[in-house]
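Fold this: DUF2637 domain-containing protein
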Amino acid sequence: MPLIDEIATYVSDQPVRTVIICVVGLILAVLAYFVLRTVTRVATGLFHRYVAPRPVEDILTIVAASIATGVSAQGMWKFAGDVLGFDGPLRLLLFAFIEVAVITSAVRARRNMRENFSAGIDGVAVWALTCLTAVLSSMDARSVAEAVFRLAAPLVAAWLWERGMAIERHRITGRSRINWRLTPERMLVRIGLAEVGDRTAGEVDAHRRLTRVALAAKKARALREAGASDRKMRAALAKLDREMDRAVEHTGLAVDQARQEALLSQIGALYNTSALIDLSPPVPWAPESEEPSPALPAAPRVTVAVDDDDDEAEVVEGTGVAVDPAQRAALMRAAREYWDKQIERRFVPRAADIAHETGIPLATARECRALWKLEPRAHALIEAAQSEHGLIDTGTFPAIEVPEPALTVNGSGPGH
């Protein structure tokens, strides 16, 4: 009998039960609709709050680390059953305790990094626990390939976590943690296969040929002053003549004034090497003379108290010398270039940083910063830091609010 005929027969035989089933099904459908709508709203809110503001690489890092952690947990599931003999609820509760500890240490390390700019001991614990779970899960492997795979999965998760921490640290502080001494670039420069600067091949060849001319001239002069034999002098002068011919041919030395000045500078430095022992450079740690020079009168000192966008007053001392418009325009251009460069690095500088780096007055730097931080890129950085990390731009960005009450100057609290 077809299904539709069976349903019609059941409805005709059991009308009351059919009505009850229809009512219950309708209620369940309505409840399922409301539950599905609530879950959708919650998922959408979580997505817009935690996922949408994050860069794509952070999301991919979290997904890949979660997959690798799942592979590690599956290995620990087999280890708990085959080696430890756990079964049933006990196995379900205890198999992934190391993975939970790894996640806990990672969360603590991230919080410590946001507050103290360092992962601390929790960062070391992430790597230690990851290596432990990798070794334990690989001990129950049935082949060498499976053992290598179970060893690699937790280490991949830890590496992705470490890179995510490094990116976030650089985003907050504007600097990397360390600079490696052994890098491919430095090794290539060391063996002579790469250049430190951005000079072209022609510039490098011209500099090398001019240096050869200067060294040949120094050697010939040293031999002449030492009273060398005619044979040595002829050989030195012949070498100098060859190097000079090559420099004129390949560098344009005869017509290029800049190359001529560069050659003369090298010769002047090489000829006067012995003068270095007679120099008397100033001692950087020697105390300065407190008496002003009698030839120039001391300029009046002006002390001005300013507030650099925060609660602490800063005292700035100046000489009161007026700045001409051209110099002021140059300082403003330098300040703007410094601001744009720091914004490119995703770092919002303080007014004190702008004044220190460019030399403009602190009050002017504070006014410029108040205008520039309203621009779209700077404003987006400040908003992102505030939404993601809770950092508030108080003029000493990034800053962390301290909930404890501030002390007064004499050390007593505000309520004492």
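Confidence is low (pLDDT under 50) at residues 290-321, 397-416. The CA atoms of residues 331 and 362 lie 12 Å apart.
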